[in-house]
Amino acid sequence: MKPFKADLHIHTCLSPCADLMMTPKAIVREAQAKDIDIIGICDHNSGENVAAVKKAASKYGMTVLGGMEICSREEAHILALFDNEASLEKTQEIIWERLSGENDPTAFGEQVIADEEGRVLGINHKLLTGAVDLAVGEIVDLVHRYRGLAIASHIDKEAFSIISQLGFIPEGLGLDALEVSGNYKLHPFNYDSYRLPFITSSDAHFLHDVGKIYTKFLLEAAEFSEISMALKGISNRAIDFYPN
Amino acid sequence: MNLREIAEKLGLEVITGKTKLDCPISGGYASDLLSDVLANSREGNVWITIQAHPNIVAIAAMKGLCGVIIANGRVPEEETIKKAESENIAIMTSKKPVFELAGNLYALGVGGIKK
After folding, report:
1. Residue from B33, B47, B50 whose CB has the most chain A CBs within 10 Å, to mutate
2. Strands (E), chain B
3. pTM for the complete prediction?
4. Would you call B1 helix, strand, or coil by DSSP?
5. What's the rounded Cα separation, in Å, for the pair A49 and A184?
6. Nearest by CB to B34, which of A135, A159, A166?
7. Which residues, listed in sequence order, are joined to residue B64 by a DSSP beta bridge?
């Protein structure tokens, strides 16, 4: 097994709260400069910039996992990562059916759909920062239906985390992993009690944050299936992250 | 003041915990962050929220709350009702928003938590 650095939670200029400099090419270059092997693209309730980041990354031989950060009815954020774009698109379709409202760019920020060079292809007008009318359990089931990975975002944060919103993680939810923010050392958790694997990622909204926080995995190759095995702890694939 | 009286006066629909309506109310708490309710609500409180997830039942049980009012016309999830029935937690619903319900309760003499 070889070590791979993965930052699986990065926003692009499509997220209203992210910097407009977060173009596909700029994100890939920043990750490259920080020796990151695998990046995950997770914009709020949309996967529309994933293809462009994959294109930008292909020149560098960097692996991109496409996904989104879904906001549940309870306003808990769940990272959904997929093996292929068809699964991401199908999930996005269902998410959008349950997402209402229109974005106000002056209040929340622009939502730019970009090509790999960062040229503007369009603007998403949905309220991407809003909550989807699906319960957190329904979202985990939906992600699994399309063979994706469902990871609870930044559970140590005081807002939009499954623990802030629901007090504790409901039993039998079937999450694949839990993410802690880069500040996890400030708020010690009883990690063992969750009986789920932990990762940490940058949740980058600005270029300088890309790859600043990452999780080291022990894998055979930089692929979705390998990450999936590492989260399950099978075939000697592993996560080299011990928050304790 | 007990749950039955406020249910009648505020026109709440009692979904579960009909045998718990004699519970004397110690005060009220309103919040949608369950972590906050866990930290700050007091035993015997009636809790107003728009969250309808099954975890509200666990929070109410852990904190020994009198009951939960789900506001703004939201309906509890099926699993929430099942859990509340098995744990005998009173869940009531109202079409009124949280602010109106809290104001109504205050007018009835139900106070907040004393800080």
Report:
1. B33
2. 13-16, 27-30, 45-49, 67-70, 90-93
3. 0.91
4. coil
5. 29
6. A166
7. none
B34 and A135 in contact by Cβ < 8 A? no
- CA–CA separation, B115 and A146 (whole Å): 49
Distance from the first to the final alpha carbon of chain A: 23
Q: Which residues of A touch B38 (CB under 8 A)?
A: 167
CB contact under 8 Å between B53 and A170, yes or no, is yes
Three-class DSSP labels, chain A: CEEEEEEEEECCCCCCCCCCCCCHHHHHHHHHHCCCCEEEEEEECECCCHHHHHHHHHCCCCEEEEEEEEECCCCCEEEEEECCHHHHHHHHHHHHHCCCCECCHHHHCCCEEECCCCCEEEECCECCCCCCCCCHHHHHHHHHHCCCEEEECCCCCCCCCHHHHHCCCCCCCCCCEEEECCCHHHCCCCHHHHCCCEEECCCECCHHHCCCCCEEEEECCCCHHHHHHHHHCCCCCEECCCCC
The residues near A145 (Cβ < 8 Å, ≥ 6 apart) are: none
Binary contact (B37, A167; C-beta < 8 A): yes
Whole-number pLDDT of residue B115? 66
Tokens read off for B9 = 């006066």
| pLDDT attached to residue B103 | 98
At A208, the pLDDT band (50, 70, 90 cuts) reads very high
Q: CB-based contact (8 Å) between B53 and chain A?
A: yes
Q: Which of A193, A191, A166, A167 is nearest to A179 (CA)?
A: A191
Q: What is the rounded end-to-end Cα distance, in angstroms, of chain B?
A: 21
**Residue B8: helix, strand or coil by DSSP?**
helix
Identify the bridge partners of residue B30 per DSSP, sorted by sequence position. Answer: B48
Which tens digit of pLDDT belongs to each residue from B10-19? 999 999 999 9
Measure in Å the smallest separation between the Cα of A170 and chain B Cα atoms. Answer: 7
Residue B73 C-alpha, separation from nearest chain A C-alpha, in angstroms:
15
Compute how many other C-beta atoms are within 10 angstroms of the C-beta atom of residue B34: 25
Flag whether pLDDT at A96 surpasses 70: yes
